[in-house]
Amino acid sequence: MQPLISVLLFLGLVPFTLAGYRVQDDYSGDKFLDMFSFDTGEDPTHGYVNYIGQSQARSDGLLDVDNGAVILRADSTNVASGRGRNSLRLTSKAKYNHGLIVVDLAHMPGNACGVWPAFWMVGPKWPDNGEIDIIEGVNLQSENQMTMHTTEGCSLAGSSCLSNQGCSAKGGAFGDGFNKNNGGIYATEWTAEAIKIWFFPRGQQPRDVSSDAPDPNHWGPPTAIFQGGSNCDIDSHFQDQQLVFDTTFCGDWAGGPNVWSQDATCAAKAPSCRDFVRDHPEAFKEAYWTINALKVYSSSEPDSSAPAPAPANDTSSPPPRPSVPQPSQPSQPSPTTDSET
């Protein structure tokens, strides 16, 4: 069999990369909450939000596990006060270097003025070790925005790069459009050569995408590709990434003066983003994540180009991320982590 494979490789009739992926971490079901920390500090993106811990989230009905699906809600009942509307920000205890991340969502926070949900990855000492925004958007946005943030000296081919905003690309469903089809799957492959993101609407996903041994070589063109090379050494800009789910409000993007005031629909509802989010809890009934499954895969063969793995039991919270359309901001203290994990 080996000689035949060698001949086929030589002729270019099979993909050069024969190594597949194996499950490294399976966050599905009740295990999810044990593998994440709840961040309870100030929102580093200056959002009008009060991140709460696991115990309060359960008692307030903002956190649930239903038939294996994890539900993360923002408050949609009370007029907000203090730091802002109650919500959740979760950070994985594990850190990653390269791999395949597959998240199956039945629902993500729906479109609403003031809302800013994201599923993303971030390294320590931001921006030194990079940030990978997989799912992100604000207000009434209908298309997902994927963005890579790094220090200077990284321009990723296949995307639009601005020095103070990172390299970004749009594609895939977001908000209400995503939810109308019972959600779907976002898959992110991170190698030394490129970071690729696929979106698969429900019912159109590859058969192996959530299996124990997925093979992205057969998935077709990605929704977005951030190609490294001479203009960006991916391994020197992206390291020790932690997974993050959060739903914040307003802040540097959704409530930015050049965003809220220029959105005719949202600006007509209230003078400012904060005023609207504070006084209209009913607008955020759809501001929740329903996570059917989340798996992180590692290559089934050793990857000599990857940085050494970070300790899996490191529970430190990540540094802040910047807002996508605003100038990058200096690093601020990491959010406080709820001791109940």
Short description:
With 341 residues, the protein is of the alpha+beta class. The protein contains 9 helices and 18 strands.
Description:
It is a single chain. The chain is an alpha+beta fold and 341 residues long. It is 14% helix and 32% strand. The strands form three sheets. Strands 1, 4, 5, 8, 14, 15, 16 and 18 form an eight-stranded antiparallel beta sheet that branches. The protein has an eight-stranded antiparallel beta sheet with strand order 2-7-17-9-10-11-13-12. A two-stranded parallel ribbon has the order 3-6. The N terminus is likely disordered.
What labels would you give this structure?
globular, 9 helices, alpha+beta, eight-stranded antiparallel beta sheet, 341 residues, single chain, 18 strands
What helical percentage do the residues reach? 10-25%
Backbone shape: globular
Q: Give the distance, in angstroms, between the N- and C-terminal Cα atoms.
A: 49 Å
- Mean pLDDT, to the nearest integer, reads 87
Give the structural class: alpha+beta
* Low-pLDDT segments, ≥5 res: 1-18, 311-318, 322-333
Number of strands: 18
> What's the assembly state of these chains?
single chain
Radius of gyration: 20 Å
List the helices and strands and how they pair.
Elements lengths: L1 H10 L9 E6 L4 H4 L1 E3 L10 E3 L2 H6 L3 E4 L2 E5 L11 E3 L1 E4 L6 E9 L7 E8 L8 E6 L6 E7 L10 E3 L3 E8 L2 H4 L4 E7 L3 E8 L22 E4 L6 H4 L4 E8 L1 H4 L2 H4 L3 H4 L5 H7 L8 E12 L42
Parallel strand pairs: 3-6
Antiparallel strand pairs: 1-18, 2-7, 4-5, 5-18, 7-17, 8-14, 8-18, 9-10, 9-17, 10-11, 11-13, 12-13, 14-15, 15-16
